[in-house]
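Tokenise the fold.
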Amino acid sequence: MGANGAGKTTLLKVLGGHHLVPPASVSVLGRPPFHDTSLSASGSLAYLGGNWEREVAFAGYAVPLAADVAAGDLVRRVPGAVPERVEALLATLDIDPAWRLHRASDGQRRRVQLAAGLARPFDVLLLDEITVDLDVLGRADLMNFLVQESSGERRATVVYATHIFDGLDAWPTHVAFLGRGGRLTRCVEAAALPELATGHLLELVTRWLREEQAVHAAAVEEELKRRGLEGEGASGAPAALPSWSNGWAAGRMTSTMKNSSNAVMRM
């Protein structure tokens, strides 16, 4: 858990092998996740997060995956999927195999995304705010399924980043808090947090966020005073102007340059 922009998604993607980092800087199951592609290819390491999207040349790289395909066919044809596991997931997530993805709601498509992502047994599962579109029952059933995966015979590890804490008080075994700048400021066993035993996880996280916000504000104010820039705002410096020269990636209609904007397409 952590504030918006703390780096939760980036951290999970690094752990999931989605970003190039030095081999010695991160290890999952004793191997570097980006360089050892067998981790993800085998299903041992799984990452589920964000929207279910694909890239379409000159149309965008965040196009929702909504093909005219039956939900059951898509999940059952996942390479390496275990048939018994697939049928259990379809039942757990209350998925009608006849759903057509191009007609399904966001919540229904999210269920199918989850079933497809969980169709192969995993050793480490990274979840990035994946329950945002699920209704109460769907989310509760998914959480119960993950408890069985981690506490049963398989003893899998599940890392779940979320801002939704309803019903999670008794769910985690450990709680980690990512502070500003991507610093892991807290990582404790759930049993050591009395707030979880009394159903006050939300209040606990709110307090941590308030404390961090106050410390950051005090540090910014002190820095502004040191530089003689009181009253100049959070940074004390003018915003950097975007660059308008080139930076266009092949097959895309958005710039790849930092602080740039596709003003023509957004007018």
Remarks:
- The chain has eight helices and seven strands.
- The beta strands are 45-49, 53-56, 60-64, 124-128, 157-161, 174-178, 184-189.
